[in-house]
Design goal:
Cytochrome Bc1 Complex, Chain D, domain 2, alpha+beta, globular, Jelly Rolls, single chain
Amino acid sequence: MNRPCRRASRAGTPLPSIAVVAVWLFMPAAADAAGEEHPGLAIFREHCQDCHGEGGGGSDTKPKPLVGDRSLSQLAGYIEQAMPEGSPEAVTGEAARQVADYIHGAFYSALARDRNRPAREQLSRLTVRQHRESLADLVGSFGGHPPGIDPARGLRGEYFSDRNFDRKRLIFERTDRRVDFDFGIEGPDPEQFRPNRFAIRWLGSIVPLETGEYEFIVRSPQSVKLAVNTAWNEPPLIDATVSSGDSHEHRGRLFLLGGRAYPIRLEFSKANQGVDNKDHEPSRPAFVKLVWKPPHGVEEVVPPHCLIPRDAPPSFVAATPFPPDDRSIGYERGTSVSQAWLEAASAAAIETADYVVDHADRLAGVSRDAGDRREKLEAFAGRFAERAFRRPLSKDLRGLIVERPFAEAPDLDSAVKRSVFLATTSPRFLYRGLASAAAQAGEPKADSYDVAERLSFGLWDSLPDRQLLEAAAKGQLSTPQQVAAQVRRMLSDRRSRAKLRDFLMHWLRVDDSPQLVKDSSRFSAFSPAVAAGLRTSLQLWLDEVLCGEHPDFRRLFTDKQVYLDGRLAALYGAPLHADAEFRPLCIDDGRRAGLVTHPYMLSVLAYADSSSPIHRGVFLARSLFGNVLRPPKDAVSPLAAELHPDLTTRQRVALQTKAVACQTCHTMINPLGFALEQFDAIGRFRTTERIGGVERPVDASGSYLPRTGERIEFDGGRELGLAVAASRDAREAFITDLFHAVVKQPVRAWGPHTLETLDESFVAHGHDIRRLLVDIMLIAWQPPTSQRR
């Protein structure tokens, strides 16, 4: 009897190396080599086919195909408990195992689906993130280099003894971690500054964590000027050098891409505005505070972890709104082209062209009155198009994109604008995978420039930089060793860190910043500021895990520390003073376990007034263990506590989900969610739950049946985290999601045991996430196996 294909690594057979993933051949699952019919097929025809259709293709009563990600043992257990509907006793024991074996191998599992219809790489346009990042790097490639990653935080402060920023009046320089000063009447230092006449200029870069609109706020009664992401000779975001009235607050908005460094300059001076009489100036108190409101946050002093004392060049950031990308299969894809997307792409191209024309002197390195301005602008337009297309221009393309606009436009500004617009609306800029599509049509396979594109979009969601393009031009992207060297270099770039952070937030299903509102009668100290602080806490902790010398995947589920500041410490029982900055602390006697017990995750996965084992269990089963859970047929509200005043939360959930139809998924969901019952609705540790005015002990025992092996038992969040860290299911789910985020293509398009190969290497290299990214790119640097010639 032919069994479903077993994973080679689990059977002990060595898998191929990462660099060479061979095509796996399949035998038909419904018959063995001798043509004998699978014994489970007869059971399927008798008990299952009427509902699920021939070959599991669906029927009038159940139109959806019978496919999923349950393992063979999980599927057999489900059939024995719940199938067929209405009479589960009809198929039990050996019969349940036989029909599960047939279904799993014939059409249900991912391997069966790959055999029946092999996955292929899809031609895709740029996603919204890729579009914005590419435009920023395309324009930015003609400017200076952004600062590298280093541990320094804060801004450079230059302190002057007069109201003007004359270097001769410079008293001292220092790094200030934040701009939040109340100088009172006397000023920074009475011995070095006159209280009525001094100035301070803060310089450096600001690095926002997330993409979106930021509102910047400067609070001061004195003269202030704030420039963000502009050159010195360009208008600032806020100019209150001469303020009117009693307003001490000045605001401005900017759209910024997360993870990039932008230049920032804040100038503050104290003196009577409009008066230059040093002898008749009344003493007034002086203060200055630099505040912002991030896209998913509240107004706060710009924190030190978003400030660096090194300068960055200005960046172009396209603020054009785009329709959201398709996420129907779990990761962003640019596979659909709508009228709204076409209009947005054109608007972004116009926005880009306008910016380039406005900054053409700096970008092209030529003044407006230069005698060779036309030649230099035309050369600039050619380089711009080459970088946009990720390869040298053919003669025909150069004629269309560069030469024709300069020959026909009425002036040079119009010529540059037309050329930039043509380049950034061309399919060669907007689409990826054109070379792979050509390979399917019988043309040569992907060349070195395609490899450069795969690497840059994989790790940066953006265009190849000069080093990648130079390597492609020299043919130095043709071996695994050459590719690995480039990947390791690229992983040290700030853009890789930003992409990995964004992936993790999406993997945890919190990238859209779900609104956190808690019952004020039960959690009076919980506020929007606390919710924003918890999100920052999670982001800082993820950064610390990822940026260490060895970013171990297991630490995501075993770390006992939580980042807390003074506000959060008061709520979660840590000994910090009220204005303390974020720092990692071990709380609750080490009962925490990384992200599964992080207060932000636990708060998101809870109701306003109580914990939610169902929400937490669904997250664990689906996101961390990688199981497919179908949505319930009907929306069901939780059982109200007042209707069952003597039941614990665990008991109410068990009562609500005891129906056979619910048990399909809740046999997995509930035991996972119950293990986190030691944490309340805002993620505080507890050992008892107040029921009817009485404290009842919390039962946090739980279990999980993996896709291979015996059921795992655990008690409490700490043991749960250790179980996740050791789980193959969790590793495979993480690897699959990371592959999809990086490559934007189905992992099995590169061969049906690509996942197993990656997992073996992941374990062999100590669960190193950065090494996993190298392995993924070593697989994805060539077209999928199904498309190679």
